[in-house]
Amino acid sequence: LNYWAVVPAAGVGQRMGSACPKQYLSLLGKPILQHTLEKLLQTNVQGVVVSLAAEDNYWSQLPTLPRVWTAPGGTERSDSVRHALEKLLTFPEVKPNDWVLVHDAARPCVRVSDIQNLMQTVADYPIGGLLANPVRDTMKRADTQNCVTETVSRQQLWHALTPQMFRLQLLYDALTTAAIQGYPVTDESQAIELMGYSPVLVSSHPDNIKITHPDDLALAALFLQQQNN
Ligand code: CTP
Ligand code: MG
Fold it and tell me: Which residues form the domain of 82?
């Protein structure tokens, strides 16, 4: 069985508010997306499909990377992932039961060892799983006025991260079903859960942040530097 990767990179980065989409901002002298792809290419994935916005003017400035293809992005992240899976399914060597790892372009700090641990751990599960972090803080539910209505136990509560690893055809069918039903899914696991399955959570190093706000850039640079030392 082969492993493939999909990297949704078609977002506009509204919360970052930078001149170019955040995945192309430079981090330690390299675009964020390039860091991300180089991490995935250090594992034994056969190839990576990157979803890009139609109006993307920055991709062509990245160096040519081996085993990397592109697909058109979509309106939502889940649409971008679906398009990349469609591209993979046209490859003659891709089998429906192959594993696919979906990883956000905006998570360049993921550790190669964590990706490898996910691949090894999830291989023992029929459906798939995802990197995740146990919640650290005390959790509150609030009303619309931001007043606390409830303290939610953090036991068994996790942050869902990426990569998320599933069987290729199953993930494609799950995302297509969610799209047809108009059900908004914000990660792959949610689409799989809607099919009645229970993905396994695999602990990630907390380095694996999603670069979202401007403050995250300094933190990401620090994490990458620490990894290189
Ligand atoms: N993404 C995508 N297609 C979309 C929306 C998002 O491929 N239609 C990608 C982003 O490029 C990013 C990942 O999904 O790598 C996670 O999304 P997020 O962090 O929300 O990025 P943006 O949507 O670009 O940021 P924002 O929500 O602040 O606009
Ligand atoms: Mg977004």
Answer: 3-228
pLDDT along the chain (229 residues), means of 10: 96 97 97 98 98 97 97 98 98 97 98 98 94 97 98 97 98 98 97 98 97 98 93
| Index of the ligand 1 atom closest to the CA of residue 9 | 11
Q: What DSSP line would sit under 147-175, residue for residue?
A: -EEEEEP-TT-EEEEEEEEEEHHHHHHHH
Q: Pocket residues for ligand 1 (CB within 6 Å)? A: 8-15, 23, 51, 73-77, 80, 104-106, 210, 212
Number of domains in the chain: 1
SS3 38: helix
Closest CA to 4 of 75, 96, 130: 96
Q: Which of 203, 226, 196, 191 is nearest to 77 (CA)?
A: 191
CA 81 – ligand 2 centroid, Å: 13
Residue nearest to atom 6 of ligand 1 (CA): 11
Quote the pTM value: 0.98
User: Does the interface predicted TM-score (ipTM) exceed 0.90?
Assistant: yes
